[in-house]
Amino acid sequence: MNPLRERLHLDRRRFLTSAAGGIGGVALLALLRESGALALPARRAAPLAKAKNCIFFFMEGGPSQFDLFSYKPKLNELNGQRPPEALLAGKRFAFVQKDTAVLLGTDPARTFAAHGQSGMMFSDLLPNLSRHADRICLLQTVFTTQFNHHPAQLMVQTGDNLEGHPSVGSWFLYGLGSENKNLPGYVVMNSSAYLSGGERLWQSGFLPTTYGGVLFQPSGNPILNLAAPPGISKSVERRGLDALARLNEIRRQKMMDPEIAARIENYELAFRMQMAGPELTDLSLESGQTLARYGIDRTDPFVPMASYRRPAAGSYGNFARHCLLARRMVERGVRFINVFSGSWDAHFLLNSEIGFFSQMVDQPIAALIDDLAERGLLDETLVVIASEFGRTPLGENRPTFDGVSGRDHHPEAFCVLMIGGGTKGGFTYGETDELGWTATRDPVDIADVHATMLSLFGIDHTALSFPSRGADQRLTPLTRAARVINDIIA
Amino acid sequence: MKAGLLAGWRAWMGVLVVFGACSAPEDSDPPPSFVPRELCTPIADDGTTVYFFSDIQPILGDRCVRCHGGVRELGSPRLNLQSREKAGFVLGSAGDVCSSEFFRRIAIADPGLRMPLGGQALPPEKVQALGNWILRGAAWPRHWAFAPLAEIEPRSVPVKDEAWIKTPIDRFILARLEREGIKPSPEADRTTLLRRVSLDLTGLPPTPSAVDAFMADTSAAAYEKVVDRLLQSPSFGERWGAHWLDQAHYGDTDGFEADHIRPNAWRWRDWVIDALNRDQPFDEFTIEQLAGDLLPGRTSTQVLATGFLRQTLYNGEDGVDLEEDRTKRVVDRVSTVGATWLGLTLGCAQCHSHPYDPIAQKEFYQLYAFFNNANESTADVPGSGSSAAGPGDVMMENTARPTYLLIRGDFRNPDTREALTQTTPRILHPFQSRQSGADRLDLARWLVDRTNPLTPRVTVNTIWYHLFGQGIVATLDDFGSRARLPSHPELLDWLARDFVGNEWRRKRVIKQIVMSATYRQSAEARPDVAPRDPDNALLARQNRVRVEAEIVTDTALAVSGLLTDRVGGPCVYPPIPDEVLNITLNGTEWGTSSPEDQHRRGLYTFYKRTVPYPNLQVFDHPSSYASAPGRERSNTPLQALTTLHNVVFAEAARALARRVQTEVPLGLREQLVWAFRLTVARRPEEDEISELESLFQDSARAYELDPQGAKDAVGDYMPPQATAAAAAAWVATARVILNLDEAITKE
User: Fold this and answer.
1) Which tens digit of pLDDT belongs to each residue from B294-320?
2) CB-based contact B545 A190, cutoff 8 Å
3) C-alpha span between A323 and A339 (Å, rounded)
4) Which of residues 199-228 of A touch B (CB under 8 A)?
5) In principle, which of A209, A347, A486, B618 could form an S-S bond with B634, CB 3.0–4.6 Å?
6) ipTM of this model?
7) pLDDT tens-digit profile of B624-650?
8) Cβ proximity of A24 and A459 under 8 Å
9) Residues from chain A contacting residue B703 (CB–CB below 8 Å)
10) B442 backbone dihedrals φ, ψ, rounded to 5°
11) What CA dihedral angle connects B496, B502, B507 and B513, to 10 degrees?
């Protein structure tokens, strides 16, 4: 017996079955199904909450909201002028020199237009995503306390700027379990040039390792160590596993340790993963039309950009593949899919770099939304598009730079998009001032985003907790209140 | 199981109907502050025993202090349920339960007034317990962990079965078992015992010749001789040093985006290994690590010891606020010292007073002040002969720096009304400094002062954990009011006292424990005891525990004969997949080591904080951001994939196959026995041999039809005078033996 496992099991059960858990249908059904207590059709609609799976896009580096969603004519008008001094007072920037900083309008060549019945504004950089205006819920007043990449990424991905907290995906897996035992319940795909947060972004933190994200490669054997060593054929492997199971069973009968039974089961799961993994990444049964719609065959255009922000060659194809795989994972019951793209950290060469990255993601994400909707999966799949922060309305005037061609980190108001999963489509939440500097109405703490995400899955964010370091820790902070943004729930 | 779940389902449905959506207590305003006495229904003392720590404090901790603790202090006047001093005014007078506002509020039926507000009512038995407590005067004893170590003479602990006793420890364990009417388990067989103690003390399994020698030694002192030999082995320091590295949250890089290498970090790791091997007294060990630079006549080794304080993360990302990052490092030092020596979650008091323990926010910053006078700068690392320290390889310097309470923990918001000076929390034992202006040396000496009961309790408890897989106090780094109560409080205090009274020698504590009959019991399950003691807290048997991450690798390397058992030196770089390495900005600084270095023990693997080595991470190596006295023991399919397929383990299987065929040239059965003994020490049973025999024969037949597959399977590990098919069949068999649950489990 392992006391920690035992404790975990009890804690999780207590959470899932207690009133304080305040849980909706999905979590409870998942628990009962997992325990074999209830035989339910795999996709029966949940009574209280719609969402069952989450696809969480993370745009590493911080895209410029002024080039995608935030139409600010006043900012353009004041281009090159000093911002009101009151706005600068007490503000901290990573790189902007406050004394000489001036406002930077959006490039004049960029056009914005209203889309759909809702009239949601998009720039011409998002010709495909804008088609979905009436499906998108745009939070444009999200703020964070962190203005450096690593801590800010941890804040969005784990709810805390310090290391050691479980990622959002780990909390989802802990709270909801997984519906497909042959694949990891929390999958990570990455096509970015680098991730400031590293693997910490999908760590299980103080939750058991089992709840950590598993990094997937987009083709062939997607999981580390999935392929057998040279010379170990499938039949040799199977024969060996049969012997192993019997030998472990002999020991189990002597020691009567349930951990041995769990290990026997895990070797079988590992074997099944060897089938399920390649089956998942095998796109040969997808139609040519589907592949084209996602843009699987696209190649990276060459545009001028900082070499360290340029992802490895093939990023356009990889990102498209990640989007298609995300749909295939949703179909197979993977609970949480985390897709990373970047680096959007355009301190300079913003016009050229944001074109590169928005073109990379626009078509595949739009195709994913179409695809999910056509298959009737959009209501039960929450798609989130987030980043660690946005970018300043100020031009970046770092003295070492040759002129101003980019923007600095801006944690005070940036955009998060939610699509499907029971959110309101065609809905814009919050307002910023005419410079896009800060919220004038309905500011949204990152913790509110987390609380709302959990709520869409029927989970009360104050109840999903795990004892660690002397307190019942949770995704949302213990030291300040987070709120569920009920206005955006359909 | 099913019945339990359905009961849970019903409970859930029922509560849903009654309460609807629970409101979060933290969002609600304080209710009207008074329940009139007329609304109180008195209860009588029902005579049940009430222990404050097991019956009262957990109720307060679970249901009350989230609002009425150090963080929020709601109520009027503000009610803090951490101490009698703060809570006394609502507890009323003995004999009159309704004189207590506290009782009136928990017992009233009206949910608009009843505490916990907005939550479920306390169950009647808890209301009764609290009522009994109040009726008897609401005694609020000093928290058990802060109380002085009890003086206990083990011989005064009566047991019936005197013959079972091997060391004083056994009296405490057996007395408790006898009280419960439980018999201890028989001693494990000698092979199992030897493997257990070898893994525990050195992290390596015994060789077949060590097993033979132990079996042949029929003297009464045979086991003790083995224990002494293992304690003297250099591998002892590697194993127990690794435990300490977890507590210090050691790493070879800075962390954060840049995650620069700390090229000299390993020198401190080697200092730790050496300190464990020479059994440096724990008080000295403490003082040198926290204040070696302040010792009179300090040596370069003593300064190197302060590497403990340099295990904090360092953000070298462009645009970082350096003061913010520095503040985080100082906070981390306070938290790490709190967890490691005091067993207190001091970090909780950084933004507000501690939610559960009587530690004020101001007291956190008074501790902070000890580390805040330390300016940091890059400097030569003693003994390295170079100044090649990375940015995070900072040294401590003693430049005074004023300390203020940081409001809500925000470094931009110091409370400059009061400059804080170094001192320790009021609730703990008294602090003395050598002169005005206390420093880290005073703090270090205070931690190992004989009047401090926490350091020895916490330290022996952690040692116990490593030998039993569980602590006497289950919450290793929390001895505060949310701690689990010790399963054997007198044993804990006896061990702690014995430790301090014998020069703080850890090897002595370890030897005391492994010599005990308690430790030597079989780990076989006890169906007769399990229903009563599912966590095995009473220790009617040993625990069966999966070995730690490094030991999974070390075992595979050792039994296959690949292990390079050199102690210490710079980090090594075993093979790592590119897709893992390329995640971060500075991902490419990984030059895979020479074959010899690839086969070093796992503890020497370069630890890159943003990209931990996957083979270690998958087996729960801690992520090195904060002190980790114990490890998770997960059991996952990704672990199975690792030991089945990863290149390191695939190579070990090939090497084990060749080793067996080389060392036992003839006879499949003899070879199988040898492979089995190399891996798990014991001889296989008949059914196990025949299972392996048939696996080998089936694999050999398959490889006879697949010569290329056979060649690939064997790779560079072709034994002399074997057919390719037989050699490959041996690889297929060896990998199954290496993947036995028992191979990575201490029994």
Assistant:
1) 999 999 999 999 999 999 999 877 778
2) no
3) 8
4) 199-200, 203, 205, 208-210, 214-215, 217, 223-228
5) A209
6) 0.89
7) 888 999 998 889 899 999 999 999 999
8) yes
9) 236
10) -65, -40
11) -50
